[in-house]
Amino acid sequence: xxxxxxxxxxxxxxxxxxxxxxxxxxxxxxxxxxxxxxxxxxxxxxxxxxxxxxxxxxxxxxxxxxxxxxxxxxxxxxxxxxxxxxxxxxxxxxxxxxxx
Amino acid sequence: xxxxxxxxxxxxxxxxxxxxxxxxxxxxxxxxxxxxxxxxxxxxxxxxxxxxxxxxxxxxxxxxxxxxxxxxxxxxxxxxxxxxxxxxxxxxxxxxxxxxxxxxxxxxxxxxxxxxxxxxxxxxxxxxxxxxxxxxxxxxxxxxxxxxxxxxxxxxxxxxxxxxxxxxxxxxxxxxxxxxxxxxxxxxxxxxxxxxxxxxxxxxxxxxxxxxxxxxxxxxxxxxxxxxxxxxxxxxxxxxxxxxxxxxxxxxxxxxxxxxxxxxxxxxxxxxxxxxxxxxxxxxxxxxxxxxxxxxxxxxxxxxxxxxxxxxxxxxxxxxxxxxxxxxxxxxxxxxxxxxxxxxxxxxxxxxxxxxxxxxxxxxxxxxxxxxxxxxxxxxxxxxxxxxxxxxxxxxxxxxxxxxxxxxxxxxxxxxxxxxxxxxxxxxxxxxxxxxxxxxxxxxxxxxxxxxxxxxxxxxxxxxxxxxxxxxxxxxxxxxxxxxxxxxxxxxxxxxxxxxxxxxxxxxxxxxxxxxxxxxxxxxxxxxxxxxxxxxxxxxxxxxxxxxxxxxxxxxxxxxxxxxxxxxxxxxxxxxxxxxxxxxxxxxxxxxxxxxxxxxxxxxxxxxxxxxxxxxxxxxxxxxx
Lengths: 100, 625
Fold this sequence. Notes:
Structural class of chain A: mainly alpha
CATH architecture of chain A: Orthogonal Bundle
Helix content of chain B: over 70%
Helix content of chain A: over 70%
Oligomer: heterodimer
CATH class of chain A: Mainly Alpha
Number of domains of chain A: 1
Number of helices of chain A: 3
Number of strands of chain B: 2
Number of strands of chain A: 0
Radius of gyration of chain B: 30 Å
Distance between the termini of chain A: 50 Å
Largest sheet of chain B: 2 strands, antiparallel
Shape of chain A: elongated
Strand order of the largest sheet of chain B: 1-2
Shape of chain B: globular
CATH topology of chain A: Helix Hairpins
């Protein structure tokens, strides 16, 4: 098993951990953290493949993911704050009636 | 030099536009000026064209523009003025103008004064298109247009549902005839590649007639004529058309529009000349219509209904003349009929006016001294239609009887007998009408009797002119004038010596009708009542107009209503159309309901489904790449 394989395996593991976290955990904050975990898994695979190909495009794409991720969190945290203030809980089950 | 043919047609149209668009704002004086002035101007121009026609009679043709051109063929809007259309144009504009003038007095207080004159003018426009059209196409435009004007004017007082329905009935009955007319046009165009009437006549008259049955074409066109000219079996609309204002009945449903069928068949006489079967059908339908309508007229009690059935009957006699090949004679009777029937209708209008809207003969009587001008003119016109010499109707009716007997083209003794019987009935019901309305003891209530008054001069002068026409119009030898265009048929040698006898018969018939009326209705009218009781069954059938309306109702209207209700409304509309659309909508709604359950609001489920979808898509891609 060479380095790239190892790194990709790590990326997949991070993604899977994040996904399982989102699906099974009820705490909205933890779900957000798990999403970041999935993003990181993706970033890791991007960087690894870019290294392997000897090109920089994959690495550049990672910066885009950073920016989008930061923006997403900047919006998601205030939403969560408002929700938590309104419902006095972080359990996503409590928000199910928002389905419209 | 240019001829004002187009102006004759367009002047009434201008009147329609002015009166129809701004008439209400310009006041009744202006409306009368435009509404009567323009038809009179058209009449003056028609007289000028008539003079220009001169001794030669070479037709004046005016190609206005090319309507359509394809396959190397051109469809012109062209007007033609020959001797036949000259006679018709003079009748239409002349009698038409008189009736316009009469309307000033008759419609004075109507709210729809401007609308009325607009409709009358548009009628004149279409009628002139009809008689001046060079091709069947232009004639058909006029044909449909007068039908529209007729519908608008019958239903002029459309607030009354019965009157509006009468208009619809006239329109729909005419549609049936128009279908025949259209089919005839299609067959002609298929065979000859043209709709120009002069070309069609020439083609049928040539040594090698076109490869199409002249009888088929003739009968199809005649179906159109039965609609417009109210012949059996499409006669049912004309009596109901009396719902319109009386001058309209005089103009459209007596003098001009209803004679369009006679004009059309005379105009296309080239076809009928070589179509003995079609001619025979026309003669039989004509004489049957003449006879049955005359019998119905015997017992009607509404003054306008009597005149309506009389019109149907007289039109039947014209078709008898057409059927035996005496086209010029048919036009002659058309011409005299225009005078005396317009005079009778306008006289009836004057009576109705005097009695404040009363139309029932049983509530009239004794009017002769109260409204003398109306009485005098009405009596002259009655004598004219009854065939008392030397008034106009005598000449034309005598010629019809003569040719019904003696024509080489289908004249026969039984046709003569039936037509003579009709003439006798005509004299009887017309003198009965005169007697019941003007003579005997007054039968109206005191209130009405107190208000009886002679009509204003604008009406009585018109009556006088028309009475004059009814009196002396017969001395104009119309058949002779038309002979270069519409040659009269040969006389059968076997009966040639009977001409004086036929004249004697037609004179005797007129006076016999008068004598019979004097016998039945003279004194206190007891003999008429006795006869009515004696023949109660016959009287009921005649009063019921042979129950033709009821028959059509059973045979056509109700089955059609049933089919449209059961098949088209319930099965077609509700079950098929509504059913399929509601079914589709229901399917969409149920499917949406099923999918809506997935939307639980549970975030984890959403994420899981999203990933499942992603995995499925990837798996599918991996398998198929």
